[in-house]
Amino acid sequence: MASDPPQQNGSNGAGSHKPHDSQEGSEAEPESESEALPAPPPQVAELVAACMRFVASKYKVALDGTPDTLSLVDQYIREARTAFEARPESIDLVAPAVGAYLGEVMRQEFAAEWFAEGSHEAWRLYFHNVFLSFNPVGIAREAITMKDEQGWNAHLTLDPAEREIIDQRLAVMPDVDEDEYYLPTTRFDVITAVVETLRARAEASGTGDVTFTREDYD
């Protein structure tokens, strides 16, 4: 269980640094426990399937739920930005689908659990091996609008005791331009670095076997 109550990180959650913020390296290998994880909630699975259909229809390529496919989702997001300018309501269809896909890739890669009840604003991804949560649908909305989406919790929620070390970690990431800053691959890279940093810190402090459940985030 976290040593302090959950608190939101002031940095944009799952975002690499805009020009003149930054990041690097890795302290530990991310832990993938996809074999042991249950299926996602039906409402998430439905949106993941929708994202797969959207991308397959446009590019004739099948997404397979792996991190390598996020570059294709990046391209889909770039085109969704143009559609959003013409039809702002399109975000309500695209963001939940992309957010569910991105969240499911992260869940499988790092071992996490969905909270997917109520409106999409309330959804969260809760990590098991580190104290970390955020809303992947919020991340997808920000990827389309290219700005912070208030109330969508795309930012990182961390144990307050870990905030400083994560801020330091994010401060040395490579600069990215405005186009890349909000993209799924950038967010995935940042989450990878955050998980690695938190895991390395836990191992060094002898708490590497501590795991977290949804109740720890309440």
Provide the low-confidence segments as ranges: 1-17, 19-34
Sheet with most strands: strand arrangement? 1-5-4-3-2
Largest sheet: 5 strands, antiparallel
Q: What integer is the average pLDDT?
A: 87
Helicity level: 40-55%
Compute the number of strand runs: 5
Give an overview in words.
The protein has 218 residues and is α+β, with helices and mostly antiparallel strands. The protein has one domain (38-217). It is built from seven helices and five strands. It has helices at residues 42-59, 70-86, 91-110, 136-145, 163-170, 178-181, 184-204, and strands spanning 7-8, 112-115, 124-127, 132-134, 157-158. Strands 1-5-4-3-2 form a five-stranded antiparallel sheet. β2 (112-115) and β3 (124-127) form a beta hairpin. The protein is globular, with a radius of gyration of 16 Å.
Summarize the topology.
Blueprint: E1 7-8, H1 42-59, H2 70-86, H3 91-110, E2 112-115, E3 124-127, E4 132-134, H4 136-145, E5 157-158, H5 163-170, H6 178-181, H7 184-204
Antiparallel strand pairs: 1-5, 2-3, 3-4, 4-5
Helix pairs in contact: 1-3, 2-3, 2-4, 3-4, 5-7
